[in-house]
Structure formats: structure tokens, C-alpha cells
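Weekly puzzle thread! Below is a chain. First person to post its structure in C-alpha cell form gets bragging rights.
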Amino acid sequence: ASMPVLMMYGDYLDRLGGTWQDAFEDCQQLVQEINDAGGNATMMHLPELGITGNSHMMMQARNNLEIADLIEQWIEQNVE
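Winning reply:
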């Protein structure tokens, strides 16, 4: 629980098959468990942030610089 954790998911979970939705839900649970244990975990679900059009290959999407900026901001706020 001492290491900050970032989970990031794009949209299309329902179109990518059940395993992606299941993985997303499992990651949400893991984030909760880490935080409950006193850790620092964040789930960034891009559609909830108003960012759409990303599947599981978000760093190769057209908006990859926007995604990289989000990750950089998270690192600056959460990593010593």
C-alpha cells in the first residue's frame, strides 16, 4: 500500500467483450482495497472525465498527448 497506483480505462468496455468489463470492475475493487488499507490508488475512467474514443490502447490513440498529460499530472500529484 506504500506505492501509488494508477489504473486507467477507456471506453468501449461493453464492445470489447465481457473480460474487459470484468477486468475494469476487478480494478475498481482493487483500487478500493488499496485505499481502504491506507494506500493511494486512483482509477481514471476516461469517459467519466469527458474523454472518449479510447480503447485499451489509449497511448496509441489520436488523443495520446491528452492521455500523457493526465498521467504526468497524476505522477506530479502522487509520486514523491
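Puzzle host: Confirmed. Bonus trivia for everyone else. The first strand starts at residue 5 and ends at 9.
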